[in-house]
Amino acid sequence: MREHTDGQEVFEPKRARAIIPGLGTVGLTRHLCQEEVFLGSGALTLPDLQIHLPAKHIAPQRFERKYIGNLTGLRALAARWVLFHHFLDDLNFPVISRGYLGVDVFFVLSGFVLSIVYLPKLPENFNWLWYERFLSRRFAKIYPMHLLTFALIAFAIFAGRLYGYHFATTDVENTGWSALCSVLMIHALGSTQHLSWNGGSWSIGAEWFVYTLVFAPIGLFFRRFRLVWVVLITVLVWSMLLTVCGFFFAGNIGKITNYGALRILPEFVAGYLLYRLIYHRRSIRGDLFTAGGMLLVFGVSLAHLDFTALLLPAVMVLLTGLYFGGSVTNAIFSSSVMIKLGKASYSIYLMQGLVHIAFRIILGRFGIDLGSSFVASSVGAVCALLTGVLAFRCFEEPVRLRLLRLFNVQLNRPAP
User: Fold this and answer.
1) What is the C-alpha to C-alpha distance for residues 357 and 154, in angstroms, rounded to an integer?
2) Is 260 exposed, middle or buried (0-12, 13-18, 19+ CB in 10 A)?
């Protein structure tokens, strides 16, 4: 046995022991059969022994899949989709013009991966230490890069004004209040009317919202629900988002930014639902699901806005294929290039706004409009990609590791 941080004893999923009258201490695995019965110094194998324990005493099975790296490769693809959308949107290329859907892919992926990583370790009852450790790791991941890009873009905006570059004033809210909301990561809760400063960081505010207020309640309460109820809840919140989108945002989910908390909620819950759906699955033809998911996602990106409702199931099909993997899927999404770009996807996403501003300022001095030049936009996108990779290696990852060491010291410090 081992102890949770709340002092409760639970059985390990791979090896545990039980005291059985007349037999002694019995070793158990998660299959609860064909184990060894330890009697003093000897051991006796009983192949037919079956012991059943209440489910509440058994720790959740940990997800251990060979091809989890495929999900990292998807991060690389989604980041580049958003990146090319921002740089090439004015040229109206198919698929690229709907690249904002890459953010929705990230939201579903976030709910799925966090459920895989953290929920098997979640105590039966709420535990503040687990919650603090979870938030400290997420904070170390997202906040340093968010703060850096905010500061750099604020500097670029003020520097541009000094050199006579006039930024857009419509649908932009670069004020002191919006700066405070951005620093506090509450700018996806409707605290501002428009995008501000590093515009793409609204999704970081949305992510922080689910980290702090949504993820733990989902893990604690939804696991008590039957799967059918989780499906119904997911369908309900997704339908509510689509209704709000249709009434207030002309059916374009890409316009839900400063109210991004509404956008991420059903997609994050869908990630948890997928975690539940594949929990007991042993094998699935990953290549088939990956191909089908890719076709569905890009089909939605080519179709009319009325087909946005299909986005969520399309992403879930894609994630299923990537999770279980296959020869073709693994060769593409787990390649060294995709893994490296996937690890740097967060920095790539946040740095693109800064590079976009820099290119507009520089090219503007020569009378070149970035949005109307395919060559200039493509060069800018590549530069943003490389800048993001450099930022990941030189800033995001080193600072994250340093903060994790600091947080671990604080959380493991004896109480006074």
Assistant:
1) 11
2) buried
* Residue 291 confidence (pLDDT): 95
- Quote the CA–CA distance of 228 and 372 in Å, as a whole number: 50
Using alpha carbons, select from 121, 31, 94, 99 the residue that is nearest to residue 352. 99
Enumerate residue ranges in the chain where pLDDT < 70: 1-67, 164-170, 409-416
Residue 328 neighbours by CB under 8 Å, 6+ apart? 287, 290, 291
- Interatomic CA distance for residues 108 and 20, integer angstroms: 45
Instruction: Report d(CA 224, CA 166) in Å as an integer.
Output: 55
Report how far residue 78's alpha carbon sits from residue 200's, in angstroms, rounded to the nearest whole number: 14
First to last CA, the chain: 28
Strands 16-20 and 24-28: antiparallel
Q: What are the structure tokens assigned to 389, written together?
A: 């990779």
- What does the DSSP 8-state code read for residue 176? H
Quick one: which H or E segment has residue 49? strand 42-50
Question: What secondary structure does DSSP assign to 251-268, as a single string?
Answer: T-GGG--TTHHHHHHHHH
Residue 409's pLDDT is what? 59
Alpha helix positions (H), 163-226 = 176-183, 202-213, 215-221
* DSSP sequence for 318-353: HHHHHHH--HHHHHHHTSHHHHHHHHTHHHHHHHHH
> Dihedral (C-alpha) 98, 108, 326, 347: value to the nearest 10 degrees?
70
What pLDDT was estimated at residue 213? Answer: 95
Per-residue confidence (pLDDT) for residue 411, from 0 to 100:
60
Sign of CA dihedral 301, 146, 193, 173: negative
For 333, the token pair is 């999404």
Q: Distance of CA 122 to CAs 59, 125, 129, 217, 315, Å? A: 9, 8, 10, 11, 26
